[in-house]
Amino acid sequence: MKAPAFDYLRAASLAEALSALAQHGESAKLLAGGQSLVPALNLRLLAPEILIDLNEVPELKGVSVENGRLRLGALTRHSELERSALIREHAPLLAEAIRHVAHPAIRSRGTIGGNLAHADPASELPACAVALGAELVIAGQGGERRVAADDFFEGVYATNLAPDDILVAIEFPLAAPTRRHAFLELSRRMGDYALVGIACTADYAGGALRDLKPVFFAAGPRPTLAVRAAEALDGKPLDSAALDAAVEALGQDIEPEGDLQISAATRLHLARTLFRRAVAALAPEAPLARKQETAA
Ligand SMILES: Cc1cc2nc3c(=O)[nH]c(=O)nc-3n(C[C@H](O)[C@H](O)[C@H](O)COP(=O)(O)OP(=O)(O)OC[C@H]3O[C@@H](n4cnc5c(N)ncnc54)[C@H](O)[C@@H]3O)c2cc1C
Whose CA is nearest to atom 47 of ligand 1? Predict the structure, then answer.
């Protein structure tokens, strides 16, 4: 199928893009990498009157370290997340996760801003943004505001963005030398959307994990920080008994649904298995017996 007819504006600045959005309201759509938007147009799931192309907006570009934070312009391509030495140094979780997102051709166009704005619950980057404590910089008619990643994702394809908002940049705290990360996902084939996945960061010292941020994706309508499982481990001597208790607590944190691919019970079982593997990857020194989850 072909996309329905639309007008097209290539914005040359953030001000021009914001003013076009204000003028056209909900009949406009922003175009970044087009890797989610264009398929939706071709399937006629969307029929905007005008596309506002962001690709030449300079304010949305660039990877830099500013004021002690790693700042990624919303137009930063997935392929740059793979290649950038700055990103590998300061947010290595992103560099690891991005290899699981689609395929090289899609990664050469897709952008981090488009990915986060699209808010697919099975997407890898939203979970990474929450696990890393990222802040989203948003421009709207009232000026600029900042939203914590954990408050940005509101549901399936739903975010805190108003129709006349533009996501400008994503800022990440610089990874401290003590900070560890783990990223795991299960999908039918490499590059497919996840059946379930986890992005996790933590400190490990004195035999205990601290400030553990295990964030699940494809396990609910939005990326979910497993608060109770994290509390069950935080600051406690990490051994098999502590891990078993955390895995048990995980059942109160996430309530995955079933779909055509797997049942809800299998998805929870896989989430528990991934959680065990993530903790073992974060703390390979810890005395953890290899235990497999029993499928429900
Ligand atoms: C075959 C295939 C497989 C894929 N597999 C995966 C996968 O495994 N994991 C995954 O996460 N993704 C996957 N994707 C999606 C890919 O990551 C997209 O690139 C991404 O979701 C959207 O980014 P984009 O830059 O292409 O945005 P676009 O498609 O251009 O836009 C997506 C949405 O975001 C809005 N938007 C874009 N930029 C902004 C902005 N700066 N401010 C506000 N709103 C904005 C648009 O208006 C639109 O609603 C896949 C895509 C394809 C085609």
Answer: 30
Ligand 1: which residue has its CA nearest to atom 9? 101
Nearest to 3 by CA among 51, 39, 53, 28: 39
Asked if residue 127 has pLDDT above 60, the reply is yes
CATH code of the domain covering residue 72: 3.30.465.10
User: Is the CB of 170 inside a 6 Å radius of any atom of ligand 1?
Assistant: no
Residue showing tokens 């079982």: 269
**Distance, CA of 102 to CA of 79 (rounded, Å):** 11
| Best residue among 13, 46, 101 to mutate for probing ligand 1, ranked by most atoms within 8 Å of CB | 101
Q: What pTM, to 2 d.p., does this model score?
A: 0.96
- Note the Cα 81 to chain centre separation in Å: 13
> Which tens digit of pLDDT belongs to each residue from 253-295?
999 999 999 999 999 999 999 999 999 999 988 888 765 565 5
Ligand 1 atom 41: the closest Cα is on which residue? Answer: 167
Do residues 229 and 246 share a domain? yes
Judge if 65 and 169 occupy the same domain: yes
Q: The CATH number of the domain where 244 resides is what? A: 3.30.390.50
The domain of 136 spans 60-173
Residue 293 lies in a domain: no
Ligand 1 proximity of 74 Cβ (cutoff 6 Å): yes
How many domains, in total, are found in the chain? 3
What's the rounded Cα separation, in Å, for the pair 72 and 132? 13
Ligand 1 atom, smallest distance to 46 CA = 49
